[in-house]
Structure formats: structure tokens, C-alpha cells
Amino acid sequence: MDGILNLLKPPGMTSHDVVSVVRRVLSIKKVGHTGTLDPGVAGVLPICVGRATRLAEFIAGEDKAYRAEITFGVTTDTQDSFGQVTGEADASVLSKGDVAYILTRFQGQIMQIPPMVSAVKVDGKRLYELAREGVEVERAARPVTIHKLQLLDFRPGPRPVAFVDVVCSKGTYIRTLAYDIGQALGVGAHMSYLVRTRSGPFTLEAASTLEELAAGRAPMLSPAAALGAMDRATVPSAAVERLKHGVAPRMKVSAPAGATIALLDQAGELLALAEALPDASIKLLKVFA
Question: Residues 6 or more apart from 267 whose CB is under 8 A from it?
């Protein structure tokens, strides 16, 4: 049983809770998720099963899409609605135009300081562990890319609310994006709700619920189908057996140097992942066959 499940994580469960459910329902131990969703966040959570767990790092590196609710005029110590309020302001001066304009400043590559409730490690300890101990430490800003930041709706008032769609690179913190937008507008803000609508090629529309999983109605995608827009190359039949034993086939690929390539057999099944070299040859990264 090897493949990827596109599951809808409900709010209130951790990503590990979902992994535990899959292990129990499928009676298999080798299960892993492809990037943590906070307990309060709902949405797409790809789950790798069997040998497909070796693909988790590649799926986790894909772009993500979210729909977020941002509430202005209130800041919290976690930058979301689950934290303690740290500041309040009358934000009734904000207009839809103000928010739409400021969003343009947060598109493209930006710098983010990871929140204290993140899983980033500092001196061998995760930030959220330090936060639980009441310790706050300096965090280095990191570059992330916001491919899309679209204002969908705006509700004015003393605590205005904006609804936005975000498409971003791996490692982007939407709660921090909301906080930084509030700071730029001078009224403060926090992320009051979040749904992940896409993770790489996995979409919310195609996601299965845990109830559907339990009823046997959650489709298992093949490892090859889970690789989205990754470059692909078909291995000659004569080289397949040697590849299964870790011998890279002598073949040329058209992908740019450094790109990751999915090596498929004649039937389109995933055999291995490889790296394209400058001379158009390949170096094996992981063999799945």
C-alpha cells in the first residue's frame, strides 16, 4: 500500500492526530504528513503511505495556497485568535482601499520573522517549546515569496475584517503575514481564521474527509500523480532492473541543471527521483522501485 491521500484536516486536530487515524484505519505503520498544519487550521493535508513517505520532503517543498481572515485593531502574542491579547486599537479609520493598497507591498519576496509559536529550532529547541516556558528569543528574518495576495472582501468597523487569498512558498507564516500587514497599517492585526486550500498539486475540492477515509471512499493517489509539475523522464525498459538496484540509467534529460526529475517506467509508475546534472545526465536521489 504505497501512495498519497489528499485529506481534509478538520480544526481541532493536530497533523499527527490525522496520521494516527490513517494508521489505524489502514492498519499500516509507515504513514507521514507533508508539513504541519496548526490544530486550529483546517484544510488540505497530504498524507504519505508506505514507500511514498520518502516523497514527503518533496511534496512539503511545493507552494501552498490559503484563504485567511484578518481582524484589524487587535494583536495577540501568537498572532492568531488563540493567543492572549497584547494590544487593541480603534481601526474604524481603515477602508477597503487602504487594505488593498497595503497588500501590494507584501507581494513578491519579503522577509519574515518566524513567530514564537513556530516549529523553527533555535539552539536545538523549537520556538513553540520556548514560548510555552514564557521565553522569547531573537529570531532571524527569513526570505519567503508571496506569489499572490488578493483581497476578497472587507468589512469595516472598529474591528475591521479582511478576507484574502494567499499563494506562497514553503515556510511562509500566514499569521505573521497578517500581523505585519496590521503593523504596516498602524492599527495592528491578527489572523482570526485560516484554511489551506492547496498544497502543491493537492486541492481542497479534491480532498477527502476522515469519515470518507473510514468508509473506504478516500482515493489513494499513486506516487507519480502526487508530484505535480515536477519534470519527468521515462527510463528505457532495458535499464529498469539496474535502476532498481541503484544504478543510474545512462540517459539525457532536458531539465535544467539542479532540477529534480521523476523517473518513470513505460507504464508511468514512479521508479526513482534524480537530479539533473550540467551535462544533461542524472544523479539518483531516491529509488522507489
Answer: none
